[in-house]
Amino acid sequence: MKHKIGFNKLNRVPAHRKALIRNMMTVLFKHERIVTTRAKAKEVQRFSEKEITRAKVDSVHNRRMVARKLWDEAILAKLFTDIAPRFKERNGGYTRILRIGERAQDAADMVVLELVDRKTDEKQAEREKRKADKKAKASTEAKAEAGDAPASK
């Protein structure tokens, strides 16, 4: 029976487990998306949702409470100034877990843990813009060639 089992120990001692969750939360808030195993993602999701909820109200007390888990000051500032205000109107459900298949070595279920309204990366947006410009240029060149070519009978 699985009564009163509050969390997944992830086969780690408490200090290692806490450090793992802290580091994964820091990376999640930095990149707004991480690839990990399903068990780790579920644990990180629990903690990160609580920290986002706390960061929605910017006070000294809340900053200190979140700073106990997030030791990187830049990420802490990003959480309070950038991430939490985006979720002001949302009551929970700040992250999503998307399954991506199994890992080749040990067949562990791999997932993507990401913030729900993750901003598209600037580099990716630039790449998509370049790709669209390239397609537009190719289509205009094709039209120009079609117009220049003599009609064959």
Short description:
This protein is of the alpha+beta class. 56% of the residues lie in helices and 13% in strands.
If you had to describe this structure to a student in words, what would you say it looks like?
The structure is a single chain. This protein is α+β, with helices and mostly antiparallel strands. It is 56% helix and 13% strand. It folds into two domains: 14-116, Alpha-Beta Complex (50s Ribosomal Protein L17, Chain: A); 120-153. It has five helices and three strands, in the order H-E-H-H-H-E-E-H. Strands 1-3-2 form a three-stranded antiparallel beta sheet. Strand 2 and strand 3 form a beta hairpin. The longest helix is centred in the C-terminal third of the chain and has 27 residues, at 122-148. The protein is extended and about 80 Å long. The termini are far apart.
